[in-house]
Amino acid sequence: MKLFEYEAKDIAREYGLPVPDGLVATSPAQVKEAYLKLGGPVMVKAQVLVAGRGKAGGIKAASTPDEAEQVGNGILSMTLKGEKISRVLVEKKLASKHERYVSIVVDRSSKCYTILCSTQGGVDIEGIAAEHPEQIVRHQIDPLLGLQDFESRTVAKELGYSGKQLTQVATIVSKLYRIMLDCDAELVESNPLIETESGEIIAADLRILIDDNSLFRQRKFLERAKTYEPDMTQLEIQAREKGLAYVELTGNIGIIGNGAGLVMATLDMILDYKGVPANFCDVGGGASEERIAAALQIVLSNPKVKVLLINIMGGITRCDDVARAILDIQKKMGITIPMVIRLVGTNEKEGQKILAEAKIPSLNSMEAAAAKAVQLIPRGP
Amino acid sequence: MPILVGRKTKAIVWGITGSQGSFHTQLMLEYGTKIVGGVTPGRGGQEIHGLPVFDTAREALEREKATAAMIFVPAPYAKDATLEAIAADLNPVVVITEGIPVKDEIQIMEVAKRKKTTIIGPNTPGIITPGQCKLGIMPGHIFKPGKIGLVSRSGTLTYEIAASLTNAGLGQTTCLGVGGDPVVGLSFVDVLKMFKKDAATKAIAMIGEIGGNAEERAAEYVRKTKYPKPIVAYVAGRAAPPGKRMGHAGAIITGRAGTAETKIESLRAAGVKLALKPGDIAKLIKRS
After folding, report:
1. Residues 106-145 of B with CB under 8 A from A
2. Is B248 a residue of the active site?
3. Is residue B129 within 8 Å of residue B92, measured between CB atoms?
4. What is the DSSP string of A91-111?
């Protein structure tokens, strides 16, 4: 789960991590008010979860109260890469001498947290990693010992600091790590970490990603995840509440399957047959009647879906049970769009017979089922 | 000769009294797996499927001889259970549990590394050496003994491919899922090393997916070592959009990293044969 910048900075303040003074505003009038409270030139920053808001016009400066109101009005009426902007963060404008980059990430292959830092900040860090990997310094953290102070100092030194600033930056790095652990974060990133004209070090931007698997013990984020999640569609939120893995896509073939890999492979196959999947939907290994019903309800709520493809590899689940469940749900829900079912595994013959009697095509092979689903898309005007 | 588990494997099951643990223990016993008991704190002294339940691993090992562990306990308690299994010198430890926080996984893997314990998973269907030992939740009947090693990041897609291998007359030495989480124990490279040493394994099927760089690292290993056995790979997730988790916690394209295309390209460049569809794996193995 991604946090908004203002949420991340609220956490930073709790830890005494220096961030710019700022206020959240939801209307142009509030932006003006924030300007007056902060007293002086401000930056108005769209609070969105999509990346690249700066380039898309989501961050603007204002040097008078009226300009702030105007800029606020402009940003608050924007939609940025499909995400409606309902909040801005108004921050005191800082003159920066240097911009640097520091983050802590989950290093999947080394199985530890790793600090990444660069003297090149404020830019697309992936671009730098690809073109100038030597400009990025990596530091792996021992999972059992945790980050030691000397390691934070080493990172600060590598970022080019010395004297009083060395300790300041080392403290910032240590605090970022503390936040990472305490919040069960997958990513804590300050880009840029700036040095002001007066020599202060401030996390001008801060991004925090929370590990969804930790929500059972990160109760405050669990509550937040329930209230709103702007980078998820309504159906995605509903699906998550029902414990289904569902991702909405752009096409018209609704897809349900059991197992993440199997469903991904099904989507790929639809593309290969020149169709476009409407969604990813994984009911999980067991594929119980209840879960298939929940999945059908979600997938069919998407009005773009014209054909439904169900791909069940019944391992331990019995296919005849799955077939009966599908028919039952079809009747109850009154499904009218064409369905293609691929049902194999234990008792597959019995399962397929049940479907055949109900005149629902069921196939043995995933390839044939995908091809059939694409074929069934209504053509014409 | 299989890898990691075989006829001599004797396992203790954590969470044996839970619904998943109990159900799959029954199926593993039916398959012929040697399971000697389970650990559920507070339920010591009870019996399930005729097996003793213990409060602690120490007590279990005083009474029974065991070599391996299986973890079925829910995510909030999985770290504790796994660390208990590692401390008890059980090896390998197969962690079926899905949804373990990554912070816990990082600690588990570090402890396992220091004790030289092999962790399979988390979020894995487990491991099976057909005809000998099944430490997992996979349907046993679709696997047959043979000469193909199978390693995968997924569950049902593994069954899909194992079934198509079996139907094509290609039995398997050992099949295992490395797990669908961002941080897992055994990696593709680890398993490829084991299959390389295993004389019975003649060819390998490898099933990857988007997210992370386990496939790229495997490709690098294959290229550098001029890997002596044929490998056929399939990578799922070409249709996945960036930034969205596709079911598995680890199946996510972050920025420009972890796409199916880069994985497919690097494997192909390393001389691995790529199947465009899961069903093509058997054909490509027969040809190699």
Report:
1. 106-107, 109-111, 113, 125, 137-139, 141-142
2. yes
3. no
4. EE---EEEEEEEEEEEETTTT
A123 in contact with B, Cβ within 8 Å? no
User: Is there a single domain that holds both residue A239 and residue A350?
Assistant: yes
Domain boundary among A192, A221, A250: A221
Per-residue pLDDT, A347 = 82
pLDDT band at A234 (very low <50, low <70, confident <90, very high): confident
Class of domain B10-120 (CATH, top level):
alpha beta
**Which of B 253-282 lie inside 8 A of A, CB atoms?**
255-257, 260, 276-279
- Domain enclosing residue A32, as ranges: 21-92
CATH number of the domain at A128, please: 3.30.470.20
pLDDT average, residue stretch B145-154: 96
d(CA A354, CA A323): 6
- Cα–Cα distance measured from residue A381 to residue A272, given in angstroms and rounded to the nearest whole number: 24
Number of structural domains found in chain A: 3
Touching A: B residues 33-62, CB under 8 Å:
none
pLDDT digits (tens, 9 = 90+) for A108-156: 999 999 999 999 887 777 777 778 888 889 999 999 999 999 999 999 9
Contact B276 A272 (CB under 8 A): yes
Tell me if B172 sits within 8 A of B145, measured CB to CB: yes
Single-letter code of the amino acid located at B56: T
What's the pTM value of the predicted model, to 2 decimals? Answer: 0.93
Across A236-264, average pLDDT: 92
Q: pLDDT band at A335, cuts 50/70/90?
A: confident
pLDDT-derived band at A15, boundaries 50, 70, 90:
very high
Residue of B nearest to A145 (CA): B107
Coil vs helix vs strand at A305: coil
Q: Please identify, among A92, A121, A150, the residue that sits at the C-terminal boundary of a domain.
A: A92
How far apart are alpha carbons A205 and B32 in whole angstroms? 57
Give A197: exposed, middle or buried? Use CB within 10 Å, 0-12, 13-18, 19+.
exposed
| Confidence (pLDDT) at B1 | 62
β-strand B133-136 against B126-129: which pairing, if any?
Answer: antiparallel
CA atoms within 13 A on the CB side of A365: 11
Q: Is the pLDDT of residue A25 over 60?
A: yes
Range B138-287 has CATH code 3.40.50.261? yes
Q: How many residues does chain B have?
A: 288
Omega before A361 cis (within 30°)? no
Interface of A with B in 224-253 (CB under 8 A): 231, 245, 247, 249
Chosen for mutation from A112, A123, A235, A280 (greatest number of chain B CBs closer than 10 Å) is A280
Question: What chain A residue is nearest to B215 in terms of C-alpha separation?
Answer: A109
Question: Scanning the structure block, which residue is given the tokens 């595994």?
Answer: A345
The answer to whether A213 contacts chain B (CB < 8 Å) is yes
User: Tokens 């709103």 label which residue?
Assistant: A228
Q: Which residue, among B23, B102, B245, B264, would best test binding to A if mutated, counting the most A CBs under 10 Å from its CB?
A: B102
Tens digit of each residue's pLDDT (9 = 90 or more) over B70-112: 999 999 999 999 999 999 999 999 999 999 999 999 999 999 9
Write the pLDDT tens digit of every residue in B267-279.
Answer: 999 999 999 999 9
Q: Catalytic: A228?
A: no
Residue A40 has pLDDT above 90, yes or no: no
Share of chain B above pLDDT 90, in %: 92
